[in-house]
Design goal:
With about 120 residues, this protein is an all-beta fold. The chain has strands spanning about 1-5, 10, 15-25, 30-40, 45-50, 55-60, 65-70, 75-80, 90-100, 115, 120-125.
């Protein structure tokens, strides 16, 4: 399984970006997908996750109401729509996959088996 994240860039505070992560391998519905971020000098942390068929999603409190995770299994892609971006959102964003049909909450790095390479999001003030 390979994950390829893209969509990062430089944006002004208050702006929007949409990240994408393409998954190759078996049918994408078999994977619960997550997004994590790693800010400079900090640990990687959970942002959002979505179940295999998209019916259940979870968000960290810091992004609720601003970010939306969604997926299109026909395109083998999971997205992270980020609105009202803040300078503190500046980070490398990673997509991750866990082989499960569960709708449980998975927020630890070790919960995920596969990782993309990361895409940098920079929010200027």
């Amino acid at each position: 399984v390979q994950l390829q994240a893209s969509g990062g860039g430089l944006v002004q505070a208050g702006g929007s970006l949409r990240l994408s992560c393409v998954v190759s391998g078996r049918a994408m519905s078999a994977y619960l997908m997550g997004w994590f971020l790693q800010a400079p000098g900090k640990e990687r942390e959970f942002v959002a996750s979505i179940s295999g068929y998209g019916g259940t999603s979870y968000y960290t409190d810091a992004v609720k109401g601003r970010f939306t995770i969604f997926r299109d299994n026909t395109k083998n892609t999971v997205y992270l729509q980020m609105n009202s971006l803040k300078p503190e959102d500046t980070a490398v964003f990673y997509c991750a996959a866990r082989t499960t049909y569960s709708t449980r909450y998975y927020a630890r790095q070790e919960d995920y088996e596969y990782w993309g390479q990361g895409t940098l999001v920079t929010v200027s003030s």
